[in-house]
Design goal:
The complex is a heterodimer of chains A (901) and B (171). Chain A has 26 helices and 36 strands. With 901 residues, chain A is of the alpha/beta class. In chain A, helix 10 runs parallel beside helix 18, helix 16 crosses helix 17 and helix 20 packs across helix 21. Chain B has a 3-stranded antiparallel sheet with strand order 2-3-5. The model of chain B has no long low-confidence stretch (mean pLDDT 93). The chains are: A alpha/beta (901), B alpha+beta (171). Strand 6 of chain A pairs parallel with strand 6 of chain B.
């Protein structure tokens, strides 16, 4: 700590920090543009000028940029000095000379950092009467709008996109006062984190195209704290609604998880909520008109007269909904709805996380790792936000070097000039990954080979770990060098996951982690869906047993909760199962194949319209809250399941409490959302900002008498602009806003220190305390994968835009889907005589035709493997690890014309 | 006693003084152009809708009686998809007109808006939009703004240089 004097007042600030960050941490208003807490200082905008005095006697002082000046003990500075104010005001006047007269037609308006800073410095009248510089815009794809005229050249976009996120296609072009931030030519921004430009850019150069299409000002959006449901990381989001439609998703700061950034799937994948495929009415097969009451009665009767009812849960439904189903059908009749291999895999992961004695880190902790080994994952595609964190972890070596050279960590450009000093990152994966560009070493192999490779590393670290036989010399020496690097690390991190669908890979990852000598070692797994871990903790039975119990006649009625079984198991088995079941009830929010086969369909609310608790891959339980009330007769899944007369739970918190007491591992979920005790009694937290407009006109076309505000009986929030905001914990704030700070940068006012944790704590409750007892070594080492002539194994490779079920229904993502093709090793392609783009016939080993797709050559894919995009409906007949035969197809025919879809 | 007499005198005196009020509706008073009555949406001098759906009128409205939704034409020009004023709530304060950055929304001297059915007080865009420019004849927001629209490319607005060629090597 250092004691400094600002405008005559004494403050204690963090030693080694810069003055701008310190002033903001103290809650003082100091305008800035180019500095960003996650990206450090650039000194490009000259906006944060202050006066620094030489000593206690100095009356004159000198002008310095706060973001480039380190804090020193007994420093005297002034923010309010006349010269500093004048400088800042003049600076913004200059920045604004070329700024277009666009605010009314700019998507940033109302949450614009440039607007805020302009008002803050008092520049209210334009004196410049000259001509303005203009730029042509580019088409940057389906996510981002480009309006270069509005640029103030703060360089935040390229610093984020190129340096922080590792993008290659956004550059600075031009020179002097003409600098241009864009691509070399029009085209979609390739990086998976491009959406963050919307929030990083302090002006309206980069704006959200999906939001612009159905635009609403920030002050008109109804918002509630929410959790991203598109992968297992549980990033915090702030979805906004207007006129009963979900309009956008922005980042909601969480000090431990996502920080300031989201991935593009999380930001732009929300379209399914407004999709045409939404189930908006209950449906009973054979009846045309159905109301909620009729459907509810039908459901009740089915349960009453059924011989036996089984329930199939879902990893994309909340803990509460799954628990309500489990209670409805009974523990013995509850099935997790996971295909057997995934079920086994998740059970193995739960066992390791809870009893393995190794900490599963949050994303912030992964950023601290000084050596990383990824086993079997392309994290950019399976858990995208984690890839961004690992990209920062690689920089830890340069931070250490900077520390030795007395360069403060916020001196971003100086640290980057130290050169490519990287902490070791090793990636063992099926084929090349998006993180390879920062990796120290990579290894490609089949899942079995990856597992063997992992076991080998573990053995190098600790002799007592099992050793695989018959490894090649190359593999051995790479394993030795990885083991050496991991051994030297203070905070090594092992990342693995479910992408390989291999228990051996998980076990190998655990062996490596267990063998590590470091005290602060960490082990994390990426999981397939947002509540995979929560569901696995619930300990139900696998899907195949559900099929068996219907096929064996043990039960005749099945209730399926938010689960498209056709994505889980083979077509024939699901067909047979649904055929055999006398009554099928499906609760879901989107039309899918399973819904099409149901006797009774109950329309379920999405994450944006209901509440629930999810457990992320770290083992952190977090609660999401409805952003807007579900349109009648849509209800939350848990409500459909608890509205029946015999249910003892009328309210969500009671259900959560019951769920917590039913499972010891889930006991902490009642603390998933911050306590609401300190909220003023009787008043709720308003979801609508205090300047929400149109209240007396938005429904006037239907009826001029205003309806009462919808009541929310389940959460501490109100569907209204009335309520108490004064003592709300920042983690519960629906809208981040502070007087004078309308943009998302107002988050400074709610953090303990800039870029740190939220005041009064981040959201969520960690369920996993790493217990001291280690599991024994895993010793079941699979044999090496040998390609069989004429046979290929299917490898389902996750893709950020192509693999997740719900975001696939989001229109903007459709433009970014990966090409519909299969990947082959170049030698395999040569042996088959196919060139890139040639169609290929995929048949089962009995030579029955399955599918036909064009081929793409992937140099890094091992021989004998056939890569497909995981989770894409077009590839549904192909299952992971299936063996297929390949034939060169006749190129005259249209590819895919015979596909049975 | 004196004050009562004075009051009687004052009342009598007013019998011979010119009336301040008029016999409405038989007699219609002359209202100034800036009188704050029924709200209209105007067009720019080129005949296009002036409203750019910026939502500033709605947020300025103290009774929240304006609701609208932005949409775009194929060239990127913003306009309201719907624009609704609930006149049964409107207090004719004129804040919306003051907030409007494009002179689109204007108050007129017409105040005769009585209805038997309150629902008829809800005006949609087709009821609000007129064919003229209203009180402000010359202003065209898009001539000043930097956004590209159908008949105006970058660099063609008032006081703009032509777009920079960022790939040139010349200083």
């Amino acid at each position: 700590m250092a004691r400094i004097e600002i405008d005559g007042q004494s403050y204690d600030v963090q030693d080694g920090d810069n003055l701008l960050s310190s002033c903001l941490s103290l809650g003082l208003d100091l305008p800035y543009f180019c500095w960003h807490p996650a990206m450090g200082s650039a000194g490009a905008c000259r906006q944060c000028a202050i006066i620094q005095y030489k000593d206690a006697e100095d009356q004159r002082g000198r002008l310095v940029m706060a973001c480039m000046t380190p804090v020193k003990e007994a420093m005297r500075i002034s923010i309010d000095a006349e010269q500093a104010r004048q400088f800042r005001s003049d600076n913004i006047e200059l920045l604004m000379t070329n700024h277009p007269h666009d605010c009314p037609v700019c998507e940033e308006g109302g949450e614009c950092h440039l607007q805020d800073m302009t008002v803050m410095t008092g520049h209210t009248f334009r004196r410049y009467r000259g001509r303005k510089r203009t730029h042509n815009n580019q088409n940057l794809g389906p996510f981002i709008n480009h309006e270069m005229n509005r640029c103030i050249a703060c360089y935040r976009c390229v610093r984020f996109y190129d340096e922080y996120a590792g993008g290659k296609d956004l550059q600075v072009l031009g020179m002097h006062n003409n600098v241009y931030f864009g691509r070399f030519e029009d085209g979609a921004l390739e990086n998976e984190f491009s959406g963050n430009l919307v929030e990083v850019c302090p002006t309206g150069v980069f704006t959200d195209k999906t939001f612009s299409a159905r635009y609403t000002r920030k002050w008109d959006l109804q918002t509630a704290p929410s959790i991203c449901i598109h992968c297992s990381l549980g990033c915090n989001t702030a979805p906004g609604e207007r006129y009963g439609e979900l309009r956008r998703i922005i980042n909601r700061y969480h000090g431990e998880i996502n920080g300031y950034f989201l991935c593009d799937r999380g930001r732009f994948g929300y379209g399914f909520v407004n999709s045409q495929k939404r189930i908006v009415m209950p449906g009973i097969k054979g009846q045309t008109e159905t109301t909620a009451e009729i459907a509810e009665n039908h459901f009740r009767n089915l349960l009453k007269y059924a011989k036996s009812v089984i329930g199939i849960g879902s990893p994309r439904a909340s803990l509460e909904a799954n628990f309500a189903l489990r209670s409805l059908v009974g523990e013995a009749n509850f099935f997790l709805g996971l295909e057997d291999a995934e079920h086994t895999l998740l059970n193995a992961i739960v066992e390791i996380l809870f009893n393995g004695g190794i900490r599963s880190p949050s994303l912030r902790e992964t950023e601290q790792a000084d050596a990383v080994l990824i086993m079997g994952e392309d994290v950019t595609h399976s858990a995208p936000r984690l890839a961004l964190s690992l990209r920062q972890a690689v920089r830890n070596a340069s931070f250490d070097m900077a520390h030795k050279m007395h360069i403060p960590l916020w001196q971003d450009a100086a640290i980057r000039q130290l050169g490519p000093i990287r902490s070791p990152l090793f990636i063992a994966s099926i084929c090349s990954t998006r993180l390879d560009d920062v990796a120290t070493g990579t290894y490609q192999g089949s899942p079995d080979d990856i597992a063997r490779f992992g076991f080998a590393i573990a053995h190098c670290l600790d002799e007592s770990a099992a050793e695989p036989v018959d490894l090649s010399e190359d593999e051995k020496s790479l394993a030795r060098s990885i083991a050496k690097a991991l051994k030297q690390a203070q905070r090594p991190l092992i990342v693995s996951g479910t992408s390989c669908l291999s228990v051996a890979v998980i076990q190998a990852a655990y062996n490596v982690a267990k063998a590590l000598p470091a005290q602060d070692k960490q082990l994390t797994f990426t999981l397939p869906e947002c509540n995979s871990l929560g569901l696995a903790i619930m300990n139900g039975r696998p899907l195949q047993q559900a099929f068996d119990s219907i096929n064996d006649g043990l039960a005749d009625t099945v209730v399926i909760l938010e689960n498209d079984l056709y994505r889980r198991a083979s077509h024939q088995s699901v067909d047979g199962f649904l055929e055999k079941a006398a009554h099928v009830v499906v609760i879901d929010n989107l039309e899918n194949q399973t819904v099409g086969r149901a006797e009774l369909v109950l329309p379920a609310a999405t994450f944006a319209e209901s509440e629930g608790t999810l457990v992320n891959n770290e083992g952190r339980a977090q609660r999401y809250f409805p952003v807007y009330p579900a349109a009648d007769p849509i209800r939350g899944s848990w409500q459909w399941l608890t509205r029946l007369e015999n249910s003892q739970w009328r309210h969500h918190h009671a259900l959560t409490a019951a769920c917590a007491s039913a499972f010891p591992y889930l006991a902490a979920i009642v603390h998933a959302a911050p306590q609401t005790d300190n909220i003023i009694k009787g008043s709720k937290i308003p979801r609508q900002p205090h300047r929400y407009s149109g209240r007396t006109a938005m429904h006037a076309n239907i009826k001029v008498s205003e309806p009462g505000q919808p009541q929310d009986m389940e959460t501490p929030f109100a569907f209204s602009m009335e309520g108490a905001m004064a003592h709300v914990q920042p983690a519960l704030l629906p809208v981040i806003w502070a007087p004078g700070w309308n943009s998302n940068q107002a988050i400074n006012k709610f953090q303990q220190e800039t870029g740190g944790h939220l005041r009064d704590g981040d959201a969520g409750a960690r369920l996993i305390k790493p217990s001291g007892s280690h599991l024994p070594w895993f010793g079941h080492i699979p044999p090496a994968f040998e390609p069989e002539p004429g046979l290929w194994r299917i490898m389902s490779l996750p893709h950020i835009f192509g693999s997740e079920e719900l975001s696939l229904q989001s229109t903007p993502l459709a433009e970014r889907l990966p090409d519909l093709c299969v990947l082959l090793n170049p030698q395999d392609a040569e042996s088959l005589g196919v060139d890139p783009g040639d169609p290929i016939e995929i048949c089962d080993p009995a030579r029955n035709f399955l599918l036909k797709f064009p081929v793409n050559i992937e140099k890094t894919l091992p021989r004998g493997l056939l890569g497909i995009t995981a989770g894409r409906p077009e590839f549904q007949p192909l299952k992971f690890l299936d063996q297929v035969t390949l034939n060169k197809a006749n190129p005259e025919q249209q590819p895919n014309s015979e596909a049975p879809l | 006693m004196f004050s009562q007499l004075r009051s009687l005198w004052e009342v009598l005196r007013h019998t011979f003084i010119k009336h301040d009020t008029v016999e409405y509706p038989e007699q219609k008073p002359a209202l100034f152009p800036r009188y704050r009555g029924r709200i209209i949406l105007t067009r720019d001098p080129d005949g296009e809708e002036r409203c750019v759906a910026c939502n500033l009128c709605a947020v300025a409205c103290p009774v929240d009686c304006i609701a609208l939704q932005k949409t775009e034409d194929e060239h990127g020009r913003w306009y309201p998809e719907f624009f609704r004023i609930n006149f049964s709530r409107c207090i004719m304060c004129g804040f919306c007109e003051e907030a409007c950055p494009t002179n689109a929304i204007q108050l007129t001297p017409d105040f005769e808006m009585c209805e038997y059915d309150r629902q008829n007080m809800v005006y949609e865009k087709q009821h609000l939009l007129i064919d003229g420019t209203g009180k402000y004849h010359d202003y065209n927001f898009y001539r000043v703004a930097g956004m590209t629209i159908g008949n105006k490319a970058k660099g063609q607005a008032e006081n703009e240089y032509p777009p920079v060629n960022v790939k040139t090597l010349l200083p």
